[in-house]
Amino acid sequence: MKYHSVIVVGGGLAGLRAAIEINKKNMTVGLISKIHPIRSHSIAAQGGVNAALNNHHRGYYDSIEKHAFDTIKGSDYLADQKAALKMTSNAPERIYEMESWGCPFSRTPEGKIAQRPFGGAGFPRTCYSADKTGHMMLHTLYETAVRFETQNERNEMTIYDEWFVTRLIVDNDVCRGVIAINIAKGELEVFRSEAVIWATGGTGRVYGKTSNAYSNTGWGMAVPYYEGIGIKDLEFIQFHPTELITNNVLITEGARGEGGYLVNNKGERFLANYPDSSKALEVAPRDIVARNMKREILEGRGINDKYIGLDLRHLGAKRILERLPGIRMHSIHFAGVDPINDFIPVAPGQHYTMGGINVNETTGCEVKGFYAAGECSCISVHGANRLGGNSLLETITFGKIAGDEAANYVSAGGSSPVNASIYDKILSEEEAKINDLLNSKGKEAHPKIRSEMNNIMDEKAGIFREAKTLKEGLDEIMALKEKYPNIKLLSSNKKANFELLDAIQLKGSLDMAEIILKGALNREESRGSHFRTDFPKRNDEKYLKHTVAKWNGKTADLSYKEVDISIYEPKERKY
Amino acid sequence: MSNIKTFKVFRFDPEKDKKPRFETYKVEWKSGQTVLDGLNYIRDNIDGSLAYRSSCREGVCGSCAMHINGKYCLACEQQLKELSDTITIRPLANLEVIKDLFVDMAPFWKKYKAIKPYLIGKESSTGKERIQSQDERAHLDKVIDCVLCASCYAACGMNAIDPEYLGPAALSKVNRFFLDSRDSAKEERLAMVANDHGVFRCHTMFNCQIVCPKEVDPTANISNLKRNIIASQMSGKLSKKGV
Ligand SMILES: Cc1cc2nc3c(=O)[nH]c(=O)nc-3n(C[C@H](O)[C@H](O)[C@H](O)COP(=O)(O)OP(=O)(O)OC[C@H]3O[C@@H](n4cnc5c(N)ncnc54)[C@H](O)[C@@H]3O)c2cc1C
Ligand code: FES
Are the beta carbons of A495 and B13 separated by less than 8 Å? Predict the structure, then answer.
């Protein structure tokens, strides 16, 4: 059994930032990550991170209030407004802090942090490091964590990389730690703690066509869900307009921010033909651009009937090499085209989960000592549609807040002592589950269930949704859930068994898929990323509310929750 | 061109097997697929016990470096169409195998942590960012792209003979901070690597330069440190023995 005052689950930006904060308070923290922190999906973020720094010559009049307003309007008024303002007001300080820790941001001619325009933003406020912002930020935070880890004398920070968390320990609504497998050895161990911060990232791999890493399975959200913690607004899935048609690798919105065009098979910048994107064109918000691209393709104006061209050629080789070197290499490696000479073949695909673990603006919830931050959480600052550059911001602002909150909770005495026997009991439950999986007599191939789930979600819970197909999709997912207990693994060894991890996580993916479909079916309106062809209008009277899904032991029960609209009155969203 | 590739994959569980073996798998493939797609196919459909790391599948997380047909590279970037019909895959060298292609990275991370891989600098006095010119920032291009995949570490002949040698990735990281106009520990950094397990172990064999999937060019980074160490020694700032 291991013990730390606080356990952080997740080594991406949110988890690292939280762990650093706890360590700053001289408290012991154990950070557990199923992949080495530097491999976390945050590494893939390209375009940048938002903060009203006023560094761009056109950004002089920007402010934290305008950033908050853009965020709330972008969210189609489903964001909790005080939380959004909290994020934008913390933004400049967090970015300067990243710079002070060494983050190599690109620079303006005056030597300040460079900023670029992004969709749905009134001013150029997206700070960037070429098109590798996530890489630079994640390296910087890991470096900072290593500084704490190697400099401390009292072992305050310990990083457990390649440990996979299978269970959150909650007893009478008090969080008591987690259980994790040491992947190399295949052995389970109890991690006792006074508080747990959850930072496990998104759930994109429920879909097949997604920009997300394999690691974003949804299991991270499912673990607290199984302990009674709610999942909020999961039907709001962001589809990014520009993913490579070959394997859905992302081409950053920064490519359009830098001036790239989207063209159909007639070479037309078709966004001009749609009322909701005719003004902002390529830098209209993601949900709008993605829908209009899909319409072009459905109406026969896609290139080869399948995709849209992202044309950067007019930017010239110098600008492409300087500002977009990463996506140039992606295009060369994965689509065989060099954007200096050819347009990039792109189509919309799954990209981001706006919804997630139901926590409040101080990252806590009804379970004492449990906090969540980053993409796995839903605070909610993104509402029905996240603006590009706001999720990197969310990880570092709320990661810090979660660290603060957990540390304060522990200093204030945390929770009363617990009978140690609960740990043994839960550990043996987890051991039994794993042995059952490894020795299952079932017949179902789990990779097949996974790919069927991926197809269902791509086809039936995509950009355009309607009651009939959502219902079909839900029935099909429920049928896959029935099959899941009969899965059979090809291997039965515990040591370094990655197949076992895949099989465990599939259960969480299926349960998250169910919540997405149920939430989407019940929400008979169109808002942000959720577009119902049978209910094409937003309906504030009935649906200006958050969906909350709770686990009843087998399936999800939905209920609804107020949205905080205390600052800006909801209006029609026009660009 | 045949639509079947033969994967010959290194298999070894040191706790169970007396010695490593190569297992052969037939994989149906199509253009656009990578070696990682092939390995995933094997794990999902033929042999679930095959161990290897992967995550981003787009060459940015550094998980999946391995030795493929004679060269270290990222399995997720290596297109199958560019390879012969038989593909031989081995784990990273100079690191112990835990199982199959899954090696123990602990020595690699230990060396990374030993070189103070973080900025040591004065805080800004304005409460805002420190000023760094575009030219100063441009010095960091390329070296900051390192994904810590350990291809260079595995390819390096010196890592093979000196287990204490810091290796190309950690030394490039030293140069990354040495080059940063905001860093104020330059002499300390030079002193830290001016020894036989540091830059002087490098015999400029260029293996790291050849294999680096991100064009970081560790050889050039190490050479820059060597040049600066010698200049520092000549000017008396750094003792000849190093520290
Ligand atoms: C291709 C791409 C580009 C993007 N670009 C941008 C951008 O330009 N700007 C922007 O603002 N946002 C961007 N985003 C979104 C943003 O990158 C993510 O939302 C953000 O990085 C998520 O960070 P995180 O810390 O919450 O999670 P992650 O970085 O995903 O980290 C999750 C962590 O949890 C760990 N974990 C998960 N489950 C377990 C478990 N069971 N046990 C132990 N550990 C576990 C993982 O090991 C990992 O360390 C992009 C996303 C993608 C996919
Ligand atoms: S899987 Fe990330 S580099 Fe290959």
Answer: yes
